[in-house]
Amino acid sequence: MRTMFERLRLWRAGLDGMAQRNRLRRAAVRYAEHGWDVIPGACLHGVRYYCGPGCATVACHPAFAHGEALSYPAHSSHDPRTVAGWWRVQAHAVLLATGSALDVLEVPAYLGLRRAHGPTRGPVAATATGRYMVLVGRGAALRQELAELPDVVLHGRGSWVPAPPTAAPEGRVRWTVSPEEVGWRIPAAAAVQEELVRALPRLRADQPDRPALRRAA
User: Fold this and answer.
1) Which residues is 104 bridged to in the sheet?
2) Which residues are 132's β-sheet partners?
Protein backbone atom coordinates (compact mmCIF):
# COMPACT_ATOMS: atom_id res chain seq x y z
CA MET A 1 0.00 0.00 0.00
CA ARG A 2 1.18 3.52 -0.77
CA THR A 3 2.02 5.75 2.13
CA MET A 4 0.30 9.10 2.63
CA PHE A 5 3.49 10.82 1.43
CA GLU A 6 3.51 8.79 -1.82
CA ARG A 7 -0.16 9.51 -2.47
CA LEU A 8 0.43 13.22 -1.87
CA ARG A 9 3.42 13.20 -4.22
CA LEU A 10 1.41 11.49 -6.97
CA TRP A 11 -1.48 13.89 -6.46
CA ARG A 12 0.83 16.90 -6.79
CA ALA A 13 2.48 15.39 -9.87
CA GLY A 14 -0.95 14.92 -11.41
CA LEU A 15 -1.86 18.54 -10.72
CA ASP A 16 1.44 19.72 -12.20
CA GLY A 17 0.88 17.62 -15.31
CA MET A 18 -2.65 18.96 -15.73
CA ALA A 19 -1.44 22.54 -15.33
CA GLN A 20 1.29 21.97 -17.93
CA ARG A 21 -1.17 20.43 -20.38
CA ASN A 22 -3.62 23.30 -19.92
CA ARG A 23 -0.86 25.86 -20.42
CA LEU A 24 0.23 24.23 -23.68
CA ARG A 25 -3.37 23.85 -24.81
CA ARG A 26 -4.17 27.52 -24.22
CA ALA A 27 -1.13 28.61 -26.20
CA ALA A 28 -1.90 26.24 -29.10
CA VAL A 29 -5.52 27.43 -29.29
CA ARG A 30 -4.44 31.07 -29.17
CA TYR A 31 -2.10 30.52 -32.13
CA ALA A 32 -4.87 28.75 -34.05
CA GLU A 33 -7.30 31.60 -33.35
CA HIS A 34 -4.91 33.91 -35.18
CA GLY A 35 -4.67 31.62 -38.20
CA TRP A 36 -1.33 29.97 -37.36
CA ASP A 37 -1.25 26.26 -38.22
CA VAL A 38 -0.40 24.13 -35.19
CA ILE A 39 0.98 20.59 -34.99
CA PRO A 40 0.80 18.47 -31.81
CA GLY A 41 4.32 17.43 -30.89
CA ALA A 42 5.68 14.50 -28.95
CA CYS A 43 5.45 14.81 -25.16
CA LEU A 44 8.54 15.48 -23.07
CA HIS A 45 9.32 12.54 -20.78
CA GLY A 46 12.39 13.25 -18.67
CA VAL A 47 15.20 14.06 -21.11
CA ARG A 48 13.54 12.80 -24.29
CA TYR A 49 10.38 13.28 -26.36
CA TYR A 50 7.99 10.36 -26.77
CA CYS A 51 4.84 10.02 -28.90
CA GLY A 52 3.83 6.38 -28.37
CA PRO A 53 4.91 2.75 -28.76
CA GLY A 54 7.73 2.35 -31.25
CA CYS A 55 8.87 5.98 -30.94
CA ALA A 56 12.59 6.01 -31.69
CA THR A 57 13.03 9.77 -32.14
CA VAL A 58 14.50 11.33 -29.02
CA ALA A 59 14.49 14.98 -30.15
CA CYS A 60 11.42 17.18 -30.50
CA HIS A 61 9.18 15.96 -33.34
CA PRO A 62 5.53 15.86 -34.46
CA ALA A 63 3.39 13.32 -32.64
CA PHE A 64 2.21 10.50 -34.84
CA ALA A 65 2.18 6.70 -34.77
CA HIS A 66 5.53 5.19 -35.65
CA GLY A 67 6.24 2.01 -37.56
CA GLU A 68 3.92 1.53 -40.55
CA ALA A 69 2.47 5.04 -40.20
CA LEU A 70 5.82 6.79 -40.70
CA SER A 71 4.95 7.65 -44.30
CA TYR A 72 1.89 9.69 -43.26
CA PRO A 73 2.41 13.46 -43.02
CA ALA A 74 2.02 15.21 -39.69
CA HIS A 75 -1.38 16.82 -39.24
CA SER A 76 -1.72 20.55 -38.72
CA SER A 77 -4.72 22.80 -38.19
CA HIS A 78 -5.71 26.35 -37.33
CA ASP A 79 -9.21 25.34 -36.28
CA PRO A 80 -9.34 26.18 -32.54
CA ARG A 81 -11.75 23.35 -31.70
CA THR A 82 -9.61 20.75 -33.47
CA VAL A 83 -6.46 22.06 -31.82
CA ALA A 84 -8.05 22.09 -28.35
CA GLY A 85 -9.01 18.44 -28.80
CA TRP A 86 -5.42 17.40 -29.48
CA TRP A 87 -4.36 18.68 -26.03
CA ARG A 88 -7.34 17.24 -24.14
CA VAL A 89 -5.38 14.26 -22.79
CA GLN A 90 -1.66 14.68 -23.51
CA ALA A 91 0.76 17.55 -22.84
CA HIS A 92 1.97 17.72 -26.43
CA ALA A 93 4.75 20.04 -27.45
CA VAL A 94 3.34 22.98 -29.42
CA LEU A 95 4.76 23.11 -32.93
CA LEU A 96 4.05 25.80 -35.52
CA ALA A 97 3.74 24.50 -39.07
CA THR A 98 5.59 26.76 -41.51
CA GLY A 99 4.87 27.50 -45.15
CA SER A 100 1.18 28.43 -44.83
CA ALA A 101 0.48 31.38 -42.55
CA LEU A 102 4.15 32.11 -41.90
CA ASP A 103 7.75 31.06 -42.39
CA VAL A 104 10.46 31.08 -39.73
CA LEU A 105 14.08 32.13 -39.88
CA GLU A 106 16.01 30.08 -37.31
CA VAL A 107 19.18 31.94 -36.42
CA PRO A 108 21.92 31.86 -33.75
CA ALA A 109 21.91 34.23 -30.78
CA TYR A 110 24.24 36.83 -32.32
CA LEU A 111 21.65 37.40 -35.07
CA GLY A 112 18.57 36.70 -32.96
CA LEU A 113 19.42 39.36 -30.39
CA ARG A 114 19.96 41.86 -33.18
CA ARG A 115 16.61 40.93 -34.71
CA ALA A 116 14.68 41.13 -31.42
CA HIS A 117 15.71 44.79 -31.07
CA GLY A 118 15.55 45.71 -34.75
CA PRO A 119 13.26 48.31 -36.36
CA THR A 120 11.16 45.75 -38.28
CA ARG A 121 9.04 44.45 -35.42
CA GLY A 122 7.62 40.92 -35.38
CA PRO A 123 7.35 37.89 -33.08
CA VAL A 124 10.66 36.30 -32.04
CA ALA A 125 11.02 33.16 -29.91
CA ALA A 126 14.15 31.68 -28.36
CA THR A 127 15.18 28.27 -27.05
CA ALA A 128 17.24 27.67 -23.93
CA THR A 129 20.15 26.59 -26.15
CA GLY A 130 20.37 30.00 -27.85
CA ARG A 131 18.50 29.38 -31.10
CA TYR A 132 16.12 32.16 -32.17
CA MET A 133 12.98 31.70 -34.27
CA VAL A 134 12.12 34.85 -36.23
CA LEU A 135 8.58 34.71 -37.64
CA VAL A 136 8.29 36.18 -41.14
CA GLY A 137 5.89 36.20 -44.05
CA ARG A 138 5.87 33.06 -46.16
CA GLY A 139 7.28 32.28 -49.57
CA ALA A 140 10.53 34.25 -49.77
CA ALA A 141 13.80 32.50 -50.61
CA LEU A 142 16.74 32.79 -48.24
CA ARG A 143 19.16 35.48 -49.37
CA GLN A 144 22.60 34.24 -50.37
CA GLU A 145 24.36 36.23 -47.65
CA LEU A 146 22.34 34.34 -45.03
CA ALA A 147 22.30 31.00 -46.86
CA GLU A 148 26.12 30.97 -46.70
CA LEU A 149 25.96 30.97 -42.90
CA PRO A 150 25.87 27.36 -41.64
CA ASP A 151 23.78 28.25 -38.57
CA VAL A 152 20.88 29.97 -40.39
CA VAL A 153 17.86 27.89 -41.48
CA LEU A 154 14.72 28.98 -43.33
CA HIS A 155 11.69 26.90 -42.32
CA GLY A 156 9.11 26.93 -45.12
CA ARG A 157 6.53 24.52 -46.49
CA GLY A 158 6.71 21.06 -44.91
CA SER A 159 8.69 22.17 -41.87
CA TRP A 160 7.88 23.28 -38.32
CA VAL A 161 9.41 24.90 -35.23
CA PRO A 162 8.69 24.53 -31.48
CA ALA A 163 6.68 27.40 -30.03
CA PRO A 164 6.32 28.75 -26.47
CA PRO A 165 5.67 27.40 -23.90
CA THR A 166 6.99 24.06 -25.20
CA ALA A 167 9.39 22.48 -22.72
CA ALA A 168 12.79 20.95 -23.50
CA PRO A 169 15.37 19.26 -21.27
CA GLU A 170 17.39 22.50 -21.30
CA GLY A 171 14.42 24.77 -20.56
CA ARG A 172 11.27 26.20 -22.13
CA VAL A 173 10.92 27.94 -25.46
CA ARG A 174 10.02 31.57 -24.70
CA TRP A 175 9.02 34.72 -26.54
CA THR A 176 11.62 37.49 -26.62
CA VAL A 177 9.13 39.52 -28.66
CA SER A 178 5.63 38.14 -28.08
CA PRO A 179 2.88 38.20 -30.71
CA GLU A 180 0.83 40.45 -28.44
CA GLU A 181 3.61 43.06 -28.38
CA VAL A 182 3.36 43.49 -32.16
CA GLY A 183 -0.38 42.98 -32.54
CA TRP A 184 0.14 39.52 -34.07
CA ARG A 185 1.65 41.13 -37.17
CA ILE A 186 4.09 39.05 -39.21
CA PRO A 187 6.71 41.20 -41.00
CA ALA A 188 7.66 40.65 -44.63
CA ALA A 189 10.54 38.20 -44.97
CA ALA A 190 12.41 40.48 -47.39
CA ALA A 191 12.47 43.36 -44.87
CA VAL A 192 13.71 41.13 -42.05
CA GLN A 193 16.41 39.53 -44.20
CA GLU A 194 17.54 42.93 -45.41
CA GLU A 195 17.90 44.07 -41.81
CA LEU A 196 19.97 40.99 -40.89
CA VAL A 197 22.19 41.31 -43.97
CA ARG A 198 22.89 44.97 -43.20
CA ALA A 199 23.98 43.97 -39.69
CA LEU A 200 26.51 41.39 -40.90
CA PRO A 201 29.43 43.78 -41.67
CA ARG A 202 29.21 45.25 -38.16
CA LEU A 203 28.97 41.79 -36.62
CA ARG A 204 32.01 40.65 -38.60
CA ALA A 205 33.95 43.63 -37.26
CA ASP A 206 32.79 43.01 -33.69
CA GLN A 207 33.41 39.24 -33.79
CA PRO A 208 36.26 38.57 -36.25
CA ASP A 209 36.97 35.10 -34.88
CA ARG A 210 33.52 33.60 -35.60
CA PRO A 211 34.08 30.80 -38.18
CA ALA A 212 30.55 31.20 -39.57
CA LEU A 213 31.07 34.90 -40.20
CA ARG A 214 34.45 34.35 -41.82
CA ARG A 215 32.79 31.97 -44.30
CA ALA A 216 30.14 34.57 -45.05
CA ALA A 217 32.72 37.26 -45.87
Assistant:
1) 135, 155
2) 107, 126
- Tell me what the mean pLDDT of segment 183-195 comes to: 95
DSSP 137-190: -SSPPPPHHHHTSTT-EEE-TT-EEE-TT---TT---EEEE-GGGGTT----HH
Q: Three-state SS for 98? A: coil
Query: What share of the chain in percent tops pLDDT 70?
Result: 79
| pLDDT score of 15 more than 50 | no
Residue 16 reports pLDDT greater than 80: no
Helices (H), the chain: 4-33, 80-86, 109-116, 144-147, 189-206, 211-216
C-alpha distances out from residue 208 to 1, 149, 200, Å: 64, 14, 11
